[in-house]
Amino acid sequence: MPRYGRDVDAATITGLLADPVRLKVVAALALGAGTIEEVAEASGLSLKEVALAARRLGRAGLVVRDRHDLSLRTELFGAAARAAAEAAPPPEPLSEDPAQDAVLSAFVRDGRLTSIPAHRSKRLVVLDHLVRVFEPGVRYPEREVNVLLAVWHPDVAALRRYLVDEGLLTREAGVYWRSGGYVEV
């Protein structure tokens, strides 16, 4: 028996949608299919596959089934996402300095640079953070510099140029080495 009033958490939703058949059923419902037959036609699944997936989704509370009519409880997706975000621990600071951490938090997501700051002062904070991937005293061919910077952002040429222009890297004959920035001892 479906428990329509129950909250569904993000992990449950993710688990349910990990199954390709249930994912197709949810997609078809989200795109406007409203009956088992319409879901089967839109998804390319058999009626039996749709019925079994709808039953499982219904037990979890994501789908309401009334004979052959199906409806997706889309509000549960947003509620689960909000609850997961509220329960998530705060991200680790990227810098001990609160001002630098604020800049880095604005431009670095999941270990990647979302954009290169336009303002020089913010760009310097980001570049000082990025240059730490280069070991002092080690010489890097340009190809290796590109590989290391590509992990952070696709515009490696701009990052390389900024690092050299700001004196954080030095370049000579296609070889780079770290020449500035904060170094932990």
List the strand order in the largest sheet.
5-7-6
State the helicity in percent bands.
40-55%
% residues in beta strands: 5-15%
Strand tally, please?
Answer: 7
* Series of secondary-structure elements, N-terminal to C-terminal: HHHHEEHHEEHEHHEE
Ends: how far apart?
63 Å
Give the overall average pLDDT.
89
Low-confidence stretches: 1-5
- Largest β sheet strand count, sense and barrel closure: 3 strands, antiparallel
What does this structure look like?
Helix content is 51%, strand content 12%. The protein is of the alpha+beta class and 185 residues long. The chain folds into 2 domains: 10-84, Winged helix-like DNA-binding domain superfamily/Winged helix DNA-binding domain (Arc Repressor Mutant, subunit A, Orthogonal Bundle); 98-178, Arc Repressor Mutant, subunit A (Orthogonal Bundle). 22% of the residues are buried. Residues 1-5 have low confidence and may be disordered.
Based on the model shown, name its key terms.
Arc Repressor Mutant, subunit A; 12% strand; 185 residues; 51% helix; elongated; alpha+beta; 9 helices; three-stranded antiparallel sheet; single chain; two-stranded antiparallel sheet
Secondary structure layout:
Blueprint: H1 10-17, H2 20-30, H3 36-43, H4 47-60, E1 63-66, E2 69-72, H5 75-87, H6 98-107, E3 108-109, E4 112-113, H7 120-130, E5 139-141, H8 142-150, H9 156-165, E6 169-172, E7 175-178
Concise summary:
The chain is α+β, with helices and mostly antiparallel strands. Helix content is 51%, strand content 12%. Helix 2 packs across helix 3, helix 3 crosses helix 4 (47-60) and helix 8 (142-150) packs across helix 9 (156-165).
